Amino acid sequence: MGIRTRAAEAACREAVWTRRPDVLQRLARSARAEVRVVALTGLVRVGQDAYVAGYLDDDAPLVRAVARDATRRLGVDVREHYRTAVNTDVPALGAIAGLAETGSAADAPLLRRMLDHPSSRVRVQAVRGLRLLDEIRAADVVLVRDPSPAVVREATLALRPLVSALPSGLPWELLANDRMELRRAGYRLLRGCGIDIELCAALILAVDAEPRLAERGRADATRITRDVTRTAWHYASGPELPVTAAKHAELVALASRAAEAIGEETSRQLIGWLANSRPGE
Question: Which superkingdom, per the lineage (predicted)?
Fold first, then answer.
């Protein structure tokens, strides 16, 4: 990639010096975003703002940024361009991203309108746009059950800051779902919710039928166990767990079930820590 970019930069410098916009325009049609950026920058330098403005809806953020600068110099309202561009049956993905980059909360309805679009790529970009505009709401939790794994991933990322406002049982329901991407979503929503919750989720995931999810669960269970047992020696009988006796018993059962998956040493350390810890009432 570095060699290609340096070659494009050299070609663009030569084209700018020799006033060859045709060369720059050819490079601007490259499939590589880094080449398009260099070529469009060269076109700006030779006074081709009108040509560069045609890249407002490009898929690449840097290309859109260069195009917006050129468009504004032409006196065009960039935000209005994006509002018009997304208000079609088949909006360009770059236009949706561009609206999120330049818009405001007032543009959220335009993005929400696309959450039911038949194209999953459009729905992904709409969710991402709402997140960038800080317009994701707890009611948008329905997005995590979208048929598209890509939409589920984007919705999970958008909803994580709002996890305390979501139904408390939802992440656990997702973690038990038949769809792999929903189990991953449930697990991600439980991250950062407290050591007992993270440990419980990690032990559940450690025995998941999907190897990649199981690997993630094992790794996190091992990390949590290492961290808690490293500090346990500070306590006469182990650090107190901020959980009820029933939850403590559930953790013990999960640790036993996942013993083979997490390995003998980690299992021994975890079960020993749980046995010496003091659950709350």
Answer: Bacteria
Least confident of 16-20, 50-54, 221-225: 16-20
* H-run or E-run covering 56: none
Residue by residue, DSSP assigns 17-41 as HTT-HHHHHHHHT-S-HHHHHHHHH
Count other Cβ atoms within 10 Å, centred on residue 120.
Answer: 16
Q: What is the pLDDT of residues 3-16, one digit of tens each?
A: 767 777 777 777 77
Residue 279: pLDDT band (50, 70, 90) is low
Cβ burial 214-223 (10 Å sphere, 16+ → b, else e): bebbbebbbe
Residue that the structure tokens 């029933």 belong to: 246
| Amino acid 185: pLDDT | 97
* Integer Cα distance of 168 and 173 in angstroms: 10
Q: Under a CB-based contact definition with an 8 Å cutoff, are residues 119 and 88 in contact?
A: no
Cα 280 from Cα 49, distance rounded (Å): 67
**Structure tokens that stand for 90 in this block:** 């088949």
Read off the tokens for 209: 């039928």
Could you tell me if residue 115 is left (phi over 0), alpha (psi between -120 and 50 degrees) or otherwise beta? alpha
Residue 168: Cβ within 10 Å count: 9
Run of H or E including 53: none
Question: Is this structure's pTM higher than 0.70?
Answer: yes
Query: Does residue 262 register a pLDDT over 70?
Result: yes
Distance, CA of 11 to CA of 27 (rounded, Å) = 9
Output phi, psi for 183, to 5 deg: -65, -40
Spatial distance between the Cα atoms of 240 and 47, rounded to a whole number of angstroms = 69
Backbone φ, ψ for residue 59 (5° rounding): -70, -25
